[in-house]
Amino acid sequence: MAGDAPLRLQVIQKTCGDKCMGHRGNRGGCCKVGPRDWIIGPVRDGDAFVARLSAHLGRPVARAEVLIDFEEGRRMFPERSMWQNPAHYPALRGVSEPPYACQFYAEDGGCTVHELRPQLCRDYECDWLKGTLERVF
Fold first, then answer.
1. How far apart are CA 50 and CA 52, in angstroms?
2. Residue 64: how many other CB atoms lie within 10 Å
3. Which of these, 43, 47, 73, 92, has the minimum number of CB atoms within 10 Å of its CB?
4. In 2-74, at which residue ranges do the beta strands (DSSP E only) sit?
């Protein structure tokens, strides 16, 4: 229902901010690669995201600043199968040290480009979040 939208958003923010993937204190797990076989991709609207980001920042943003393409990505984590599959690209570029978080994720504030984020991030719901939403709505 349309009236549920603000409540749904509150439930999502609380669930993802306090108990991401069912683990208390885990914030933004879907925004971090960490030790698991995980990739933040594919970003199907990557070029549109880069354009939104460029407009927001008031400067041209190079695609490579924001996205990782297959050839680069497969070399980053050769032992991880998700990174060896071209179907998962382009992926969001993260910071280069563990937990390899999305560069737009801030531990104390969540997504720093929330209004601009790509569709992948807008649509993503982990199984824990889906179960929570099913119980509430």
1. 6
2. 12
3. 47
4. 67-68
Instruction: Please give the Cα distance from 133 to 137 (Å, whole number).
Output: 6
> Is 102 strand, coil or helix?
strand
- Average pLDDT (67-83) is 97
Give me the mean pLDDT over the 69-79 stretch: 97
- Cβ pair 36, 130 in contact under 8 A: no
Helices (H) and strands (E) in the chain, counts: 6, 4
DSSP SS3 for 53: helix
**How far apart, in whole angstroms, are the C-alpha atoms of residue 22 and residue 76?**
28
- Which of 56, 52, 31, 41 is CA-nearest to residue 106? 31
Question: Looking at residue 13, what is its pLDDT?
Answer: 79
* pLDDT tens figures, 8-21: 888 887 787 777 77
Confidence grade of residue 4 (pLDDT, cut at 50, 70, 90): low
Among residues 26, 27, 21, 32, the alpha carbon closest in space to that of 95 is found at: 32
State the pLDDT confidence band at 116, using cuts at 50, 70 and 90: very high
